[in-house]
Amino acid sequence: QTVLQGIILLPLRVICITFILLLAWLSASIATFCQPGRGVLPLKGWRRRMIQTTLSALTRTAYFVMGFQVQVKGKVASRPEAPIFVAAPHSSFFDAIICALTGMPSIVSRAENLSTPVFGTILSSLQPVAVSRQDPDSRKNTVAEITRRASSQGQWPQVI
Fold first, then answer.
1. Within a domain: residue 52?
2. Compositional bias of type Basic and acidic residues: which residue ranges (predicted)?
3. Can you give the residue range of the structural domain that contains 134?
């Protein structure tokens, strides 16, 4: 009986997750379409709200479809309380849960990830701090950008 459930559930889960991923891509594409100051200026207004609500809900739904139920204990720190979040060990796809639960903050990511089909568009909508592994000054530039965003008086979202 368990094998039969797996044979039925696996394709259904794959189809649902694919559909959710395409919805997330569409939402990210709409929110960043003709974005003024792409990557240099923070998303504002409806664009930011759309990313926060839609991508957060879709991410939670995708994890639910995969069989994960996440429960938050405590209160998520607000932007003035904690302009920077730290997630460790930062080594798996579970990092997306943290993003969904904290309102889709900006993240620090490899610059190469931005050119990945579908995922790159979704990632770009989070306005990441892109780290280039080929640039010898990348570490210094990344720290400077995180500091600039953290001290922006709420213009940029929290950074994780």
1. yes
2. 134-148
3. 1-151
Distance of CA 155 to CAs 44, 57, 61, 77, Å?
A: 8, 23, 28, 17
User: How many residues does this entry show for the chain?
Assistant: 160
Strand ranges, E, within 10-143: 108-110, 129-131
Q: For the purposes of burial, counting CB atoms within 10 Å of the CB of 83, is it exposed (0-12), middle (13-18) or buried (19 or more)?
A: buried
β-pairing, 108-110 with 129-131? parallel
pLDDT by position in tens, the chain (length 160): 677 777 888 899 999 999 999 999 999 999 988 876 666 788 888 988 999 899 999 999 999 998 888 888 888 887 788 888 787 766 677 788 888 888 888 888 888 888 889 888 998 888 888 888 888 888 899 889 888 888 888 788 888 8
